[in-house]
Amino acid sequence: MPLPGKPAALDLFVSHRSALVTYARSIIGSSGQAEDLVQEAWLRFDEASRGRFIEDATGYLYRIVRNLALDSKRRLVRENRVTAAGDYDEAVRVSADAAPNPETVALYKDQYAIVAAALAELPERTRLACEMHRFGGAKLREIAEFLDISVPLAHKLVADGIDHCKQRLGQA
Fold first, then answer.
1. Which pLDDT score, from 0 to 100, does residue 87 have?
2. Are 127 and 161 in contact (CB under 8 A)?
3. Which residues form the RNA polymerase sigma factor 70 region 4 type domain (predicted)?
């Protein structure tokens, strides 16, 4: 039963919080990261449950925690792979050794100019959505909120922008 003046989603989260932290810790092995993941899970759950009925809300909340924990674990494995052969200085040296040759730099400079021109040809809303997603790393939900549009429309704008750039690059 919800607390007076508080939404049911918050009550659900509060009542399961310590179990969620324990669950996240069992996946990633770190109490601090588990706490952070559970907070992130709450933000996502709260956003998803606003004004909507979620049939198995507890299961959904646990699934969010699990997915975040697994993503975090995968990211940590990737990061460790970069520095596994030695220390940070060695990782920097290896990436510096892999610097592109002048022809590659010239090729990508030309492609960058084509993409910049293609983006300038797009309607402002499409250009913004595409730039936010591809260059800013924004999620479709964030783009939709920023542009005050639906998530499917944000997806369409991003896809249209990318298709236009591909056409200009001759990759369509």
1. 52
2. yes
3. 114-158
